[in-house]
Design brief:
Number of strands: 4
Number of helices: 0
Helix content: under 10%
Oligomer: single chain
Structural class: mainly beta
Low-confidence stretches: none
Distance between the termini: 8 Å
Radius of gyration: 12 Å
Strand order of the largest sheet: 3-2-1-4
Strand content: 35-45%
Shape: globular
Length: 70
Amino acid sequence: MKTNYKIGDVVTGTVTGIQQYGVFVKLSGEEQGLIHISEFRHGYVNNLSELVKVGDEIQVKIIDVDEFTH
C-alpha cells in the first residue's frame, strides 16, 4: 500500500512504543513511524519516557518516507 503522507505533512499520531533510540507512533490503521531520539526535540534528550507515555497523542512532522515499505 502506498502511503498518502508527504514529506512536510504534520499529523496527529499515537505513541505505541518507547525505546532508548526513539518513539514509535501509529499514524493510521496500517502505518507507523519512528521518531529517532535525535529528532524528538532540540537539545539533549536523556530519557524519552519522561517526555511521552504509550497512548499519548502527539503532533509529528513527516521528514522521510521509506521508499520500499512506505
